[in-house]
């Protein structure tokens, strides 16, 4: 048994996913050992509740096992990370604890996508960059300061010399526009996937 586990630790992610799909419990255990801590740490940046973090990570891995034959997983870690972030987003959504313009960018994006969406992280960044180029100068600057430079709405209002309410309104407009743009891009990509 120990020999078998150490053998699994030498397997690539692709090999492990292939074995997982066939129902290999040891492959699942290796994926869990390889990634649970990274997922936990990533989630801790967004939620400070250890109980909720453990529940989310556990749910994602449980779902990975129970739906192992139904998913087409190309890259296991990005898949798991997106699934975890989607669960965090759902908690934000249920709790309505923050206004939309205060949500982390990945939560905003995930609101219009599913965990196993057509987009990978690189494609998403490209689509968002393209969307930003289409925005009016002020809106683009506000969006950049909020989601790239991680400034607060108060800091943005001071830098640009506009009211905080104007900043919030611009972010809400951006939020709606980006969600709409991503939804349309997803429809287009379902017919013509990016290479």
UniProtKB/TrEMBL annotation:
One GO process term, biological-process aspect: DNA-templated transcription initiation
Name of a matching Pfam family: Sigma70_r4_2
Keywords: Sigma factor, Transcription, Transcription regulation
InterPro entries: RNA_pol_sigma-70-like, RNA_pol_sigma-70_dom, RNA_pol_sigma70_r4_t2, RNA_pol_sigma_r2, RNA_pol_sigma_r3/r4-like, WH-like_DNA-bd_sf
Residue intervals of the RNA polymerase sigma factor 70 region 4 type domain: 136-171
The organism's place on the tree of life at top rank: Bacteria
Gene Ontology molecular function: any one: DNA binding
Protein name stated in the entry: RNA polymerase sigma-70 factor, ECF subfamily
């Amino acid at each position: 048994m120990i020999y078998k586990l150490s053998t699994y630790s030498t397997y690539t992610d692709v090999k492990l996913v292939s074995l997982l799909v066939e129902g290999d419990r040891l492959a699942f255990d290796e994926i869990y050992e390889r990634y649970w801590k990274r997922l936990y740490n990533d989630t801790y940046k967004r939620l400070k509740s250890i109980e909720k973090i453990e529940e989310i990570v556990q749910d994602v891995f449980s779902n990975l096992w129970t739906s192992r034959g139904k998913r087409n997983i190309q890259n296991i870690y990005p898949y798991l990370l997106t699934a975890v972030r989607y669960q965090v987003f759902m908690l934000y959504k249920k709790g309505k604890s923050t206004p939309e313009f205060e949500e982390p960018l990945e939560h905003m994006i995930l609101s219009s996508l599913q965990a196993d969406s057509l987009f990978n992280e690189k494609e998403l960044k490209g689509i968002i960059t393209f969307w930003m180029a289409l925005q009016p100068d002020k809106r683009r600057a506000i969006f950049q300061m909020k989601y790239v430079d991680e400034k607060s709405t108060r800091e943005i209002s001071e830098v640009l010399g506009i009211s905080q309410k104007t900043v919030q309104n611009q972010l809400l407009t951006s939020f709606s526009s980006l969600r709409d743009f991503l939804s349309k891009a997803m429809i287009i990509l379902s017919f013509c996937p990016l290479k």
